[in-house]
Amino acid sequence: MKNKITAAITLLCLAFSTPVSSQEKELNFDKSYIKANDKKTTIEINEMQELVYIILSITENGKNPNMVNQKTDYYKDVQQYFTPYATLPVVQKFNSLLTENIINYFILAGNAYGFKFDQNKIVPTQVYNFPAKGVGKFEVKVNPILTYIKDLEEFVERSNYRKFYHEHLPYYNSLKKDYVKFASIALQKKWLENRFNYKINSYRVLTSPLIGGMNATHTFEDNQFKEILLFLPTIKQDQKLSEQLNHAINIRIIFTEIDHNYVGPVSEKFKEKINSIFNDRAKWVNGANKSTDHYPNPIKVYDEYLTWGLFILYAHDNFGSDKELMNQITENINSMMAKKGFPKAKEFNEELLSLYQSAKDKKIENLYTQLLDWSSKQ
Question: Signal peptide span per the entry (predicted)?
């Protein structure tokens, strides 16, 4: 079975993925799980994951504001409550893992989702067994939650973590309600599945008020059931922006994670042509921007252009009547891509939008040939 995580890191401005194979069955979607989750979008602040995020937030490396959101009263509560336990072994071990490679942030949080609590004991859910093996060129052979399970249980017991978590359930529930109100995930899903011949049965948003700018996504499949896990920050409101632009940017953060799961299978069909065009890296990435090192092959470069460009198409269909807002959204996308080291984003997105507006059926796969022909002439 293949396992791939696609991650976006604001700190490094990158998105990358790698297939990691394993003989272990990584997940188990049985009939009861499928019945409970089919055609649903679930928003979670998972108790095991929140434990990991809290531990990461009190590490020395966790002082990085791009890793940990430090702008909330909740963060202050976490620091005040848990800093006295920062000398416990699991905190020091997690800090060492982050020093080794920042990707361990995803590995730890992702695999925590495969566990739950039985009193203060940590036990497998028997659903997700080893969901997060690697990102980019970095991978692990052993599930780190299993490696550090006794250390985690010590932290839980010494800090009375479960009491803290349950006392904050009203706050967590308010953040989940914000997702329902502002994220428009059902509308995004409908738009994407009308434009790709690809269906995902279940969306599961795994969020936390401690997630900073480090996001990830992957679609898992078992028993012909597909579920997408989205590791995303909570909804944010920038007081400097209009309500409409705030709404659009929150959707963009989510959309540009979700659509990787739809674009990837189509790009594989055009891999040979994509490789022949985007292998000329100097035209498509700014090599001086070191974050582009994390897009080491042509298809990753192309997919990053397209997944961000697609949000302009989504915005065109849903916000297009507001010309000022559309201009702001387009400028946001183009400037973000330029900062990430993709200098042709403006021209690419203009061509993509033009092709989309002229298309009759609006299927994204049917735009590939013309878009790649245009790309070959750059």
Answer: 1-22
Question: Is the four-CA dihedral 190, 195, 200, 203 of positive or negative sign?
Answer: negative
> Residue 225's beta-bridge partner residues?
222
Q: Residue type for 132, please? A: A
3-state secondary structure of 200: coil
Q: Which two tokens stand for residue 29?
A: 């979607």
Whose tokens are 């909570």? That residue is: 234
Q: At what angle do helices 47-57 and 104-112 cross, to 10 degrees?
A: 150
CA 361 to CA 245: how far, in whole Å? 28
Measured CA to CA in angstroms, residue 353 lies from 198, 296, 371 at distances of 21, 27, 10
What is the pTM assigned to this prediction?
A: 0.86
266, 324, 325, 346 from 321: Cα distances, Å: 30, 9, 9, 21
Q: What are phi and psi of 6, to 5 degrees?
A: -105, 125
Any residues with CB less than 8 A from the CB of 159 and at least 6 apart, and which?
Answer: 81, 82, 85
Which two tokens mark 168? Answer: 């904050």
Residue 55 CB partners (closer than 8 Å, separation 6+): 82, 90, 91, 94, 152, 155
φ/ψ of residue 133, rounded to 5: -100, -30
Nearest to 262 by CA among 342, 188, 345, 336: 188
**Strands of the chain, DSSP E:** 2-4, 6-9, 14-16, 19-21, 40-44, 115-118, 121-124, 134-135, 138-139, 202-208, 214-222, 225-233
Q: How far apart are CA 134 and CA 270, in angstroms?
A: 25
